[in-house]
Amino acid sequence: MIDIKPFRSIRYTEKAGKYENLITQPYDKIDPTLQEGCYRRSEYNYCRLNLPIEEKRYEIAQQRIGKWTAEGVLSKDKASAIYVCRQEFEFSGRTYTRTGMIVALRLYGYEENKVFPHEVTYEGPKIDRVNMLRATQKNLESVFLMYSDPEGTTIDLFSKIAETQPSMQVEDSFRVKHVVWRVTDPRTIGLFQKAIENKTFVITDGHHRYESAIVYRDERREKEKWTEDSAFNFQMSYIVPIQDEGLIVLPVHRLLKRISLTHKRLVELGRFFTLIELEPDVEAFEGFLENNKIKHAFCIYDGEKAYGLLLKNKKTISELIPHSAQSRLLDVVILRDVVFKTVLKLSDMKIDKDISYVRSIPDALGKVKSGEAKLAFMVNPIDPKTVFELAQKHQRMPEKSTDFYPKIVSGLTLMDLSPEEKL
Known about the structure:
The chain is of the alpha+beta class.
């Protein structure tokens, strides 16, 4: 049974200023430009906690939480609550809403088959987040997970709560509106707990945070007295039903930094793909991917020429991809194992040194034109239901296979993991 609990969140008070100047993106979505902008926006911007610009960032984050609490800028709620959160946003000319809730989710190892990952992870980011947990004894950010609610039980509860007055509304820098309802009623919380208890969860965003939390939990258990209700046994989590129409996944395009598109490589690609020359512009790439979204299709651009790639025969790649039949037919797996590993002879690529990732086609083209990358590979997005199904079969996708949009912003809630904190 899955265990979720309300918690006493640490939140900004009115002394901190306007919320739009305080919230920020998750730490792993903050680049140097955004980081500097956050620092200019407010002396209390949450970026100063989740990703301080200073050298000793873990100690700085710890000191700031203490200082801001003493100043009355941060304050812990007196009553435990769960937080129903709705994002309102535009995507591809349509307006969407996505509703979930922020809760304290008990930490489960993947071997328990209750929480499943869908992407591979790396040690570096986990070490970073464990160090932040050790220093602050706080969950600074939520992990984003999805679950299935075909009966609509939690969806109906969200709808009823959304008819009441929200406790917070704020628009982020991507023009996404975040609306939050603080739920303290024990009966309503009990209904959510009952609806969730037999579900399984798949991590959509925050794999490194979740795995770091388990490492930290185990460390704490070895060093101190604890009970099952000790807060460090839980992870602050934003959970959303997969049936929500606002659960949008964006494609993640690949940029290769040091590999050029030679004639020999084009010929080799032709073994597996039909190559169609395209105009090297955004409209042509978007049109090709959209028209071939039920096929296995990619676009490639080297700064001068552009091609659309269509897989010729599924059987020809089966021996090259050591995965199940279902996962081997994911576009991102074909791109990694056939294009990158087999054709381009690339393996063990380092992020930012050999490969980088972007959300938009215009951004991908711009980075190739500027010389920041030599090749751009553009892909179609993955359906969230496919992600959910594969994860529960213990099949992980390549890194950066999905980009669930929008992110749950950082700075709405903060969960205390101090030794005395019980849930």
